[in-house]
Amino acid sequence: MEPVDLRYPIGKFQAKESYSKEEVAQFTERIESLPLKLHSAVVSLNDAQLDTPYRDGGWTVRQVIHHMADSHSNAYIRIKWTLTEPTPIIKAYDEKLWAETPETTLPIFISLNVLQALHAKMVALAKSIPHESLSKKFIHPESKKEVRLDQLLGTYAWHGEHHLAHISSLKERKGWHL
């Protein structure tokens, strides 16, 4: 059996060209359920556990949680830009540097609350977008690639589960489930 790549415990996201209404509905359900799943996964962790990297050279659990709030905030803003501007060029950010800014040492409940509120808004917005509007695109300034809204929703359904798997697999390896 091949060892699991701790960086990608559920594999890398591979976007399709487009997605059906049913697939987008599944993405939205996954995005909607993430805050509760994440809260359940981390609520019992103490500070030492929260400050443990999920892999050698990786972010701590605390940094992962704060990163998720930052990243998903950017995703929400990208959706709004794409719905309100013709093929906008979005703003990129350095996620590694963002994971090291001073507020990433704050209690995790701040970012858990951000994610809960943000996902409620993101899900309400996603559910209101007509399916034909999910083909609207933005341009990423670094890759110059056009990204469709349905692809973005798929990416963030995966992204949340990707980081949740980082935390869950660390807990499993450390025996923190007990």
Mean pLDDT: 96
What is the fold named in CATH at topology level?
Four Helix Bundle (Hemerythrin (Met), subunit A)
CATH superfamily descriptor = dinb family like domain
- How many strands, what sense, and barrel or not for the largest sheet? 2 strands, antiparallel
Shape: globular
Quaternary form: single chain
Strand element count: 2
Radius of gyration: 17 Å
Named at the architecture level, the CATH assignment is Up-down Bundle
Any idea of the CATH class? Mainly Alpha
Find the structural class using helix and strand composition.
mainly alpha
In whole angstroms, how far apart are the ends? 26 Å
| Helix content, binned percent | 55-70%
Word description of this protein:
By secondary structure, the protein is mainly alpha-helical. The protein has a single domain, classed as dinb family like domain (Four Helix Bundle (Hemerythrin (Met), subunit A), Up-down Bundle). It has a two-stranded antiparallel sheet. The longest helix has 26 residues.
